[in-house]
Design a protein that fits this description.
Structural class: alpha+beta
Number of domains: 2
Strand content: 25-35%
CATH architecture of the largest domain: 3-Layer(aba) Sandwich
Distance between the termini: 55 Å
Number of strands: 20
Number of helices: 9
Order of helices and strands: HEEEHEEEHHHEHEHEEHHEEEEEEEEEE
Shape: elongated
Helix content: 25-40%
Length: 359
């Protein structure tokens, strides 16, 4: 029995995490790329590693896949430490950015390739390839070559080639990079629905926050080789744990304020309770602000920039020394504020603001 087979047999406990990364660190020479990263992924869960270039997300995925070995920590699949397990014996499947399809093989040949390398009987290969192509809606495409497929179809072949191996954990390394914006949006929904329908456990890597919010059950935001926060998309967006997460996810305004008697008074006069002390910075999302006529409140400003973004209108308002972003739904506007207009700002929901230490 191979180690990978032994690992797959340990998956009967549905309450235990399928994947557990414990204090993983990775260095290249003297440069530390990952610093004590820990995360658990449950059965059927999609977790996204999200961060800017160089944050360590792809390095962590490659350590899970077995392409690189960490200097410290463990990577457990169904309770078995896979760090010493060779990449070709780990119960994982990887979908790469470039799809890495063999141009000289048909769709069927590409999907069957891994099974043939493992010596699977021909009759079983035919059945499993047919099932995999059915799962990604590519039945009837068996005899086509990659050059005869669209970008979205090529991606589905790459996914089928992984699914046919029946991996315990599906790893996806920015699989939408080669697609245009409209197709990316469509494929994000299709891929999430496919993974959920198949009940697979998946790690998804991206630098695109909108993609992460669409695809994920939970998001792990990374910075400088560390995991800053792991939480569901709504919590990541509404209650970011650190100022970095707040700044990275969506648009944010950071307003310096003073704490007095356990409360922060916002520039529009409303207050928010806090356990912080002294000087803090308050994060206010642009859609949590309302632009009104000047004179209706104490927070005065002037519209410096205005643009239409489809169903939204974005304003940049100069208020004292600060530049404040405001986003409003087109149908909610009381009037089309223009550049140079004197206005007032008002926080729509003070409880939706998040407070961080000033440093």
């Amino acid at each position: 029995m191979t180690i990978a087979q032994d690992i797959s047999l340990a998956s009967s406990d549905k309450t235990a995490p399928v994947l557990r990364v414990e204090n993983v660190s990775k260095r290249f020479g003297t440069f530390t790329v990952l610093q004590s990263c820990s995360i658990s992924v449950s059965e059927g869960e999609i977790v996204t590693l999200l961060g800017s270039s160089g944050c360590g997300k792809t390095t962590l995925l490659r350590c899970i896949a077995g392409f690189w070995a960490p200097e410290e920590g463990m990577i457990l699949i169904d309770g078995h430490n896979t760090v010493p397990v060779p990449v070709n014996r780990r119960p994982v499947g990887v979908v790469f950015q470039s799809y890495a399809l063999f141009p000289h093989l048909t769709v069927e040949g590409n999907v069957a390739y891994g099974l043939r390398m493992r010596g699977v009987p021909r009759s079983e290969i035919s059945r499993r390839v047919a099932d995999a192509l059915e799962s990604v809606s590519l039945r009837g495409f068996e005899n086509r070559y990659p050059s005869q497929l669209s970008g979205g179809q090529q991606q589905r072949v790459a996914i089928a080639r992984v699914l046919v191996l029946e991996p315990r954990v599906l790893l996806l390394d920015e699989p939408f990079n080669a697609l245009d914006a409209k197709l990316r949006g469509t494929m994000q929904i299709e891929l999430r629905e496919l993974i959920k329908r198949l009940g697979m456990t998946a790690i998804f890597v991206t630098h695109d926050q909108e993609e992460a919010l669409t695809m994920s059950d939970r998001i792990a935001v990374m910075q400088g080789g560390r995991i800053e926060q792991v939480a569901p998309p709504d919590e990541i967006f509404d209650r970011p744990a650190t100022a970095y997460v707040a700044d990275f996810i969506g648009l944010s305004n950071f307003i310096p304020c003073k704490v007095r008697d356990g409360k922060v008074t916002l520039p529009d006069g409303q207050s928010v309770a806090t356990k912080e002390s002294d000087t803090v910075k308050v994060m206010i999302r642009p859609h949590n602000l309302r632009v009104t006529a000047q004179g209706t409140g104490p927070w005065q400003g002037q519209v410096r920039f205005q643009r239409n973004i489809g169903p939204l209108i974005e304003y940049i308002v100069t208020a004292g020394e600060a530049e404040i972003r405001v986003v409003a739904m087109r149908q909610d506007r009381t009037r089309p504020w223009s550049e140079g207009d004197a206005i007032s700002l008002e926080v729509i929901d003070p409880e939706y603001c998040t407070i961080y230490p000033a440093v």
